[in-house]
Amino acid sequence: MTTDQAPTPSPGSPAPDGPLAGVLVADFSRVLAGPYATMLLADLGAEVVKVESPAGDDTRHWVPPRRGDTGTYYLAINRGKRSIVLDLKDDEDLEVAHELSRRADVFIHNFKPGGLDRFGLGYDDVAGRNPASVYCSISGFGSTGGAHLPGYDLLVQAMSGLMSLTGDPDGEPYRAGISVFDVMTGLHSVIGILAALRHRDATGAGQHVETNLLSTAMSTLVNQTSAYVAGDVVPSRMGNAHLSLFPYEPLATGDGDLVIAAGNDGQFRKLVQAMGVPDLADDERFRTVGLRNDHREELRPLLLERLATRSAQDWFTELSAAGVPCGPINDVRGGVELATSLGLEPVVEVGGVPTVRNPIRFSATPARYDLPPPALDSHGEEVRRWLGFGPHAHAEAAPTEPATPSA
Fold first, then answer.
1. Cα–Cα–Cα angle for 262, 263, 268, rounded to 5 degrees
2. Which residues contact residue 55 at a Cβ distance below 8 angstroms, ignoring those fewer than 6 apart?
3. Catalytic residue at 331?
4. Residue from 182, 283, 314, 377 carrying the catalytic annotation
5. Using CB atoms within 10 A of its CB, is residue 335 exposed (0-12), middle (13-18) or buried (19+)?
6. Model pLDDT for residues 347-356, shown as the tens digit of each residue
């Protein structure tokens, strides 16, 4: 921490612990990218104060589905935090916000670029109060030429090129089933924050960390953007097929599809041996990855003919035993049940609220799950007292400024 210690934990809760214990995060973000990032920081022991408008984080009201009166969307990304309502148009609340920014090690927001400047909460103002602060701002299209563009994940999926790659080759483009760039921007924000904290440890100086959904998309599209920038190839939709690998897609069996991912020559040889057609591995058309791609329309019917003789479950058992990467296409329940059956313990209950466990395992400093997703302003008085302010009543009001990343 840069100045004072973080708020005292609620009665009965354990003392702060974890690799980020003692780090105070002032979280002025909402919806997905920012809250996902700050939840991960909280899991690692940071003290996160979630600042909300009187109307609360939008995702509290994104229903269905719901648990009680709260959207499960909100519950997914807000554990481990304390909630305080601050109306930045109210002078006393703004003073509380300034004091919180003065004490925080990390200040994170996803207001539109420049949107916090008028409240004295832009980077220069926060750095003036606390030169050691790591200030992270998240936007949709950056703070230069794209600063005026609204940053919704769906827009970025469309404008980045992702939707041009998703869907049937002869059908319409599709969005991904989750807000993939919001999530990845949250992850990149955490990486940037941790690197900046490491720099601060070495130098004592904070800095401005900027992330945006479009830049994240350019990086997340990996081989597809590389195909264009390095190979002058504009990729297109291929359904479930892979541009550079075959077989690497769902293939029909006797009673349903099975995903088969033979990513190299050794795996392909194991596949055709387990399928009872070992000669295909030495066929001049199929000996290498490149040749199998060139002749995939000749190879596919040969594989489908064999796969049709048995069920997906039979082939899954047989091919897995042979060391061939493959698997069924589950629904979300099936995915959770699979992770549970493999001993990954994907669900952790926090204050009676089931949430999905942090995916990182530590041998010495495991993730913490001390606080459930907070009710609106449920820690307002506690945080105000710690900051040296008395209680303050709030009327319902609209958010003071729209955040950039959406869902």
1. 40
2. 396, 397, 398, 399
3. no
4. 182
5. exposed
6. 999 999 999 9
